[in-house]
Design goal:
single chain, about 375 residues, mainly alpha, Serine Threonine Protein Phosphatase 5, Tetratricopeptide repeat, about 80% helix, about 0% strand, elongated, disordered N terminus
Length: about 375
């Protein structure tokens, strides 16, 4: 009989000891002594009887949430918010009857808002890595409420980008993209990050991965100019004109009514100095969209540059005594250049009508009007440059 009584006494003492630590933690938390409260509650969860009670974990969540909000203590306990979140989750798991569901959900909600608020503060302090993880935590808790917090995920991506954690940033940008948040810009961000990832891939970055991401994004947004131009720019920077040409020809054949693709193909031909093909592609774009600034400007600029080249060749031919043949050749170059200026004029005028503030267009028109003797229009363009 003594053995039984002693055994019961031991069990009762253990239970009372665990309860004592929980009560001590509760009282210390109530008086604002959060550090002592944390010490007591950690002792409590080390005791089996206390560790299986939802109340113990709920108090632990409250304590660490208070620590996380304390500017001094949070430095000593940098994981406080994460511990609070895990504690509330454990409390919810143990509260099988749901008696304290409201309190637990409120606690998790406070973890979410605190993480988001502190993430903003950390970002402002340029502590980007810490900010990213707090935005991640905020998004994770939101997910527990079946909410996809795309703003928090986007903020995390931005912070990971600034802290140089490229793959983490890319993963979060892609999550945003899959949820139609900040599209198509997030795909541009992904491509740029891959291209700039010299740490992983060395000079030139992960160009092929960037191209794959852009091509996948273009399937979702086939008429998005920024994606097409970004892909084109990669090819041009790599001086991979043939691949640019092939890629854009295929794209234009698949979507022949997409003026952006024809314009981009014209740009590639322009760089390859295939002027007839460039002109054909630009004109195709303008047939589909007559007010397309880029196509009008590039086509006009191409003819304008040919005209200038002819003028320069004509000037280079000059010498004090020229033969009739040389004089005739020089005159031919001048006339051809004048015709080319006239050919460029309507396209540049259309570009100016589409974007009256573009300085390069204004300068080109001023020079054309000066050569064609249209003094009033020349003065008008000159006035716009002041």
């Amino acid at each position: 009989m003594k053995i039984v009584i002693t055994f019961i006494f031991i069990l009762t003492s253990a239970a009372m000891f665990g309860q004592k630590q929980v009560v001590s933690a509760f009282n210390a938390n109530k008086t604002g002594d959060y550090k002592s409260a944390a010490g007591y509650i950690e002792e409590a969860i080390g005791i089996e009887k206390a560790a299986v009670k939802d109340k113990t974990w709920r108090y632990r969540g409250e304590i660490y949430l208070n620590i996380a909000k304390d500017s001094v203590l949070s430095q000593e306990f940098p994981q406080a918010l994460w511990i609070a979140k895990d504690s509330y989750v454990k409390a919810k798991e143990l509260d099988r009857k749901g008696s304290y569901e409201r309190e637990v959900l409120m606690g998790l909600g406070l973890v979410q808002t605190t993480a988001g608020s502190q993430g903003i503060n950390d970002y402002s302090s340029e502590n980007y890595s810490q900010a990213a993880r707090k935005f991640d935590l905020s998004a994770q808790v939101a997910g527990m409420f079946d909410v996809l917090d795309t703003m928090a995920i986007f903020n995390a991506a931005l912070c990971y980008e600034k802290s140089g954690e490229v793959d983490l940033a890319i993963a979060r940008y892609k999550t945003c993209g899959a949820s139609d948040y900040q599209v198509p810009n997030v795909y541009l961000f992904v491509a740029n990050l891959l291209r700039q990832d010299t740490i992983t891939a060395g000079p030139g970055g992960r160009t092929e991965e960037a191209l794959a991401e852009l091509q996948a994004a273009r399937e979702l947004f086939p008429r998005e100019q920024s994606l097409i131009i970004e892909e084109l720019n990669i090819y041009l920077e790599e001086q991979d004109y043939e691949r640019a040409q092939t890629n854009l020809k295929l794209a234009a054949e698949v979507d022949p009514t997409n003026e952006i693709l024809w314009f981009s193909l014209g740009s590639v031909y322009d760089n390859l100095e295939k002027r007839d093909l460039a002109s054909e592609a630009y004109l195709k774009a303008l047939t589909l969209e007559p007010t397309y600034f880029d196509a009008n400007y590039n086509l006009g600029a191409m003819y304008f540059n040919q005209a200038v080249q002819g003028i320069n060749e004509s000037n280079d031919m000059w010498k004090p005594r020229m033969s009739k043949t040389e004089t005739a050749k020089q005159k031919e170059l001048e006339n051809s250049a004048k015709e080319m200026f006239a050919t460029a004029k309507p396209y540049l005028e259309a570009a100016h009508a589409a974007n009256a503030e573009d300085i390069d267009t204004i300068r080109s028109l001023r020079d054309i009007y000066a050569r064609t003797g249209e003094d009033d229009l020349m003065l008008k363009m000159s006035g716009l440059l002041k």
